[in-house]
Amino acid sequence: MSANQPATPSANEPPGAPAVTRLSRYTTTDQDEILGSGEDPFGVAEAGLTWLPKEEHFGVRLDGRLVAHAGLLRLSVAVEGEKTEVMGVGGVAVAPGVRGRGLARLVLAAALDHARTQGPRHALLFCRPPLVPLYQRLGWHPLDTDVLVEQPGSRVVTMPLRTMVTPLHDDAHWPPGRVRLHSLPM
Ligand SMILES: CC(C)(COP(=O)(O)OP(=O)(O)OC[C@H]1O[C@@H](n2cnc3c(N)ncnc32)[C@H](O)[C@@H]1OP(=O)(O)O)[C@@H](O)C(=O)NCCC(=O)NCCS
Prior knowledge:
binds coenzyme A; alpha+beta; ten-stranded mixed beta sheet; about 190 residues; single chain; 10 strands
C-alpha cells in the first residue's frame, strides 16, 4: 500500500464508516489538528519519558480535517531473554469533538491490518491505566509483568504506564516472562 492511499477496508469495518488513509507523514501540526496544541495531550508527561516517533501513519479525515491517527513502528524486544520483534502502536488520537464514535477502533483496525503483513506476531502499546478497558474492548491484553525500556543516556527504566499486546496472527500467544524493549518506547 503506498502512502496517502486509502488503507484496505478492515474486515470489521462497518458499512458507511469513514475511510482510513495511509498518511505519508505525520507532523506535530497534524497532531495539533487532532488534539489541539495543549501541553500534554496524551496525559503522559508525568512519566517523564522520551518517546520514538512512529514510522507508518494511518489517519481519518472528516470534511478535510484530520480527526484520528494511529502510528506503527517495528521494534526489537526480548521476552525472558528471547529476542523477537513486535509492531509498536502509538500516537493513537481522536479529536475531542468526534470521540465515542468508533474512530479509534477504525484507525487501529487499519493499522493492525497493515501490521499483520509485516512479520511480527504481536502488536504492543503503552497506555495510561484508565485506557486499559478501552483497549481490552478492542482485543488487547494487559501484561502483568515489568517492562523495561531504554531512555537517553544508556538508561534502562521500568515503564510506568501499562503495556498491552494483541496477537497479529491466530496462532500467536504472548509468552510469559520479563519484557525488555531494546529501544526507546514508541
Ligand atoms: C483514547 C481515544 C483515542 C479513544 O478514541 P475514541 O474514538 O473515542 O474511541 P472509540 O469510539 O473507537 O472507542 C473504542 C471502543 O472502546 C470502548 N470504550 C470507550 N471507553 C471505554 C471504557 N472506559 N471502558 C470500556 N470500553 C470503552 C468504546 O465503546 C468502543 O468500543 P465499541 O466500538 O465496541 O463500542 C481518545 O479518547 C483520545 O484521543 N484521547 C486522547 C489521546 C490519548 O490518550 N490517546 C491514547 C494513547 S495510548
